[in-house]
Each structure stands twice: as structure tokens, then as C-alpha cells.
Amino acid sequence: MPSIVYTVREGDTLWNIAKAYGTTVNDIARYNGIVETDVIYPGQRLRIFVPEESTPKWYVVRPGDTLTKIAEKFGTTVQRLMWLNDISDPNLIYPRQRLRIRP
């Protein structure tokens, strides 16, 4: 099952995150060693295992993105993103560029 790394934002709850990624609060808590499911912090990074079909097929590059950050976010590799998008230089991506995340 693919996984992503999610960075908690102000106002997030495990319930909202779980709902957005098609998983459960208990699964996120278990994967991340969280005992108190009502206590998460902005900036905290959570590994979330998601069903393949809930991983988006496309991603639009934002300012500051790198292929490494995008690969980590979607639980894939830089090499796979380069292959899927016919990219020869991993340092040459641009804001608003549309990248394929999965076939």
C-alpha cells in the first residue's frame, strides 16, 4: 500500500486527515505511535498509508516544490516521477507544471 508524508496544519484533526485520505484515525495513530488521538501539532509529520485509488494521478507543482518533496509526499521515488513525466533533470521543474504521480 502506498504511503504519503503529511505535514499537520493549524486546525487539522486526525479525523479530518483520515477522512481526506480514505483511512482511519486508528490506522494513522498506530502507524505514527500516537497515543492521544486528539493531540497533534502544526508542523508534525505523519506517515499515512493510503489506498492506491486515493492517491491522485496528477499534481500541479507549486513554488518551492522539488521532485524529492513531491515524491515523499506521495510515497513514490524521484526516479519514478522522472520516468512517468519524461524528465531528464530532476532539478528542472516549474510552478504550475502538471506531473503524473501514478500511471
From TrEMBL:
InterPro entries per record: LysM, LysM_dom_sf
Every LysM domain range: 4-48, 57-101
Top-rank taxon: Bacteria
Signal peptide extent: none
CDD domains (UniProt xref): LysM
Record's protein name: LysM peptidoglycan-binding domain-containing protein
Lineage of origin: Bacteria, Bacillati, Bacillota, Clostridia, Eubacteriales
